[in-house]
Design goal:
Methane Monooxygenase Hydroxylase, Chain G, domain 1, 4 strands, elongated, membrane, Syntaxin-6/10/61_N, t-SNARE coiled-coil homology domain-containing protein
Amino acid sequence: MAKYKPLSRTGSDGRSTSAPPYASSDEEEDQTMNASSGASIASKSTRKSTKSRARRRRDRVDNAALSEPLTANIEHEDGDDQQWDGSDVESGSVQPTGSLVTAVEDDPFHVFREDLTRKLDLVDEALARYLRVVDSTDTAVNTAEVKDAKKHLKRQIKNAESALKDLQTTVTMVESNRKKFFHINDAELHDRRKFVTRSRDCISKAKKDMNSDDVKAKILTDERRKAARRAGEAGAQSDRDRESASFVADQHAQAQIMLQQQDETLEDLDDAVVRVGQMAGEIHEELGQQNKMLQEMEDDLADAEEKLGMVMGKLAKMLKTKNKCQIGTILCLTLVVFILFFLVIYT
């Protein structure tokens, strides 16, 4: 085996030192390989950390994109932006959310509109029935059917007027609070006003047709014919007698019409009295409930007053002492009593 000479090194003090006899070329090669492997490992770890940082950066970008607010504009395929619109909500193409849902739920116009439309159809049916009865029958003889048809028509007209009043209330509510019903634009509000006006015109037309000149003339003609038949049965022969009978028949017919109108007015008054009686009964029940609540409140106040008197009596006895601890306790209890007293009154 070859012998290795010790390597001499010069220190900082100028003296030469010998290197250890174990430093050989093989060891130097091992050190070189270890250094290179360490460098490769360091470079691999550097690449891994770089990739990890890039991945985290992409994740942050994706998360930022996903965290955009949902209230942003909706973009179509052609690149145009779509804004929320009240017409879209009403047509059903866009589902409303949040405060818009509350505003839509608080708008009962469509419910009252359907109800009014249905009642207007009933008015038209009742009017057609009444006119058919007047035209096809002898109103002087078939008085019961005529009265029944007219009474039914009046009832349907009143129901339609009540529904129209409710619908008008919804329109007025929207007009007075435009901020709350922001989903209703001016065009929609204008359409609602037009619908209310058309409905009112339909009801007015039904009333006019019910008491039209043609209907009155038909009823008067039937009454004259009835009076003429009676006069004919009485045996009037001369022209003078016939003229007198015709005049009497005409007056009798007009009197019968006036009596019918008075009967209808009395029936309307009777219906009004019945409604007033129902309202009075409801008011009486409400007053009874209020009196019951007041009586219960008086009982609660009496109990509270009794308990408060007992507490104040005990406090009066305790106030005679000079102990500061007891005085502080008394003040605290007094405060609690007043708090309980106000809670009993205002709850």
